[in-house]
Design a protein that fits this description.
Elements (H helix, E strand, L loop, with lengths): L10 E4 L3 E4 L3 E2 L15 H13 L4 E3 L8 H10 L7 E6 L1 E2 L7 E2 L3 H15 L4 E6 L8 H13 L3 E7 L3 H8 L4 E7 L8 H10 L2 E5 L6 H4 L2 H13 L3 H12 L12 H9 L8
Length: 279
C-alpha cells in the first residue's frame, strides 16, 4: 500500500502556476464549537495543521469568518514561515456578529478591509487564492468581484476564487477577472452544482467541494450515501474515506478539502488519496 500522502491523489494546477496535490484541508474545524471562538485545545489544532503539511497537504482552505479570525491566526501560528509550495486560500464576504449568524457583506469597502486583515493574520504579503465567500444580495456581483480584481491588480491577491456561485454567476464573474477556483457544496448525495463542475472541468478551473463527506443532516439520509456506505463496508474503508475517493474519481477538476479536528481522522482522510473508486 502506498505511503499516506496527499500527493497520491495526483496534482492539479490553479491559475497556471500553483501546482498542488488534489487533496487539501479545510481549516474550518480547527476553531471552537459552532465554528466560533478558540478551539478547546489550541495546541492540538496547531499540531493537526502541522501534521497535514507533513502528510503532503499543500492546499489549505480557510476564511476570515471561521472563528471569526481564529482559523487564519492558528494557521499562521502553526505553519509560518510557510513551505514554499504551500497554498493558503482564504475567503471574505461573510461576517459573524454572533455564533449562529453568517451574514453576507459584499460591499467593496468591506472586502478590501477583510482582505487586508487576512493578510496580517496570515502573515502574508500576498494571498495565493482569495475567494468571495458568497454573493451579497444587496450588492451587485460585479461590484464585489470588481474589488477583488482591483486587489489582484495591486498585488494583494495572486488569484481570485468564488464560492456558492451558480454557472451563470460564474460566467459574470469571469467577465471581470480570471477565476481559478469555485467552492460550492458538493458530495455524493448533493450534486446541484454539476453544471458548475462541468464548466470547471472544461476550462481548467479547480472545483473545491464543501461539505464533501455528505455528513449533513439532509445528505446523510439520501440513498446515494447509503450506497456509498455499502461500498465502503465492502472495501474495509470508512465512509469519509469513500466520500473522498468518490470525489477524486468524479472529476479531474475536483480538489476536495475535507475538514477535521482530529489527527487520526486527518490521517484516514489523507490515506484515501490512494483509493480508487472511479468505477
Amino acid at each position: 500500500m502506498p505511503d499516506i500522502n496527499a500527493s497520491n491523489a495526483g496534482f492539479i494546477t490553479l491559475g497556471g502556476d500553483l501546482r498542488v496535490p488534489r487533496l487539501g484541508l479545510g481549516a474550518m474545524r480547527v476553531t471552537g464549537e459552532g465554528i466560533w471562538g478558540e478551539p478547546p485545545d489550541p495546541d492540538a489544532a496547531r499540531r493537526l495543521l502541522q501534521r497535514a503539511v507533513a502528510l503532503g497537504v499543500r492546499f489549505i482552505d480557510t476564511a476570515d469568518s471561521y472563528g471569526p479570525e481564529v482559523s487564519e491566526r492558528l494557521i499562521a501560528e502553526a505553519l509560518h514561515p510557510y513551505p514554499a509550495d504551500l497554498v493558503i486560500a482564504t475567503k471574505g464576504g461573510i461576517v459573524r456578529p454572533d455564533r449562529p449568524s453568517w451574514v453576507t457583506d459584499g460591499r467593496p469597502e468591506h472586502l478590501r478591509l477583510a482582505c487586508e486583515a487576512s493578510l496580517r493574520r496570515l502573515r502574508l504579503g500576498r494571498i495565493d487564492v482569495y475567494q468571495l465567500h458568497a454573493i451579497d444580495p444587496r450588492v451587485p456581483l460585479e461590484d464585489s468581484v470588481g474589488e477583488l480584481a482591483r486587489l489582484r491588480q495591486e498585488g494583494k491577491i495572486r488569484h481570485v476564487g468564488v464560492s456558492n456561485f451558480n454557472a451563470r454567476e460564474l460566467e459574470r464573474a469571469r467577465r471581470i477577472v480570471p477565476v481559478v477556483a469555485v467552492q460550492n457544496r458538493y458530495n455524493v448525495a448533493y450534486r446541484a452544482s454539476d453544471p458548475v463542475l462541468e464548466v470547471c472541468e472544461r476550462d481548467g478551473i479547480a472545483f473545491l467541494p464543501w461539505s464533501p463527506l455528505a455528513q449533513g443532516q439532509g445528505d446523510a439520509h439520501r440513498p446515494e450515501r447509503a450506497e456509498l456506505e455499502r461500498l465502503a463496508v465492502a472495501r474495509g474503508w470508512s465512509v469519509p474515506q469513500a466520500s473522498v475517493a468518490w470525489l477524486l474519481g468524479r472529476s479531474p477538476a475536483m480538489l476536495p478539502i475535507p475538514g477535521t479536528s482530529r489527527i487520526d481522522h486527518l490521517e484516514q482522510l489523507v490515506a484515501a488519496a490512494s483509493f480508487d473508486l472511479s468505477g
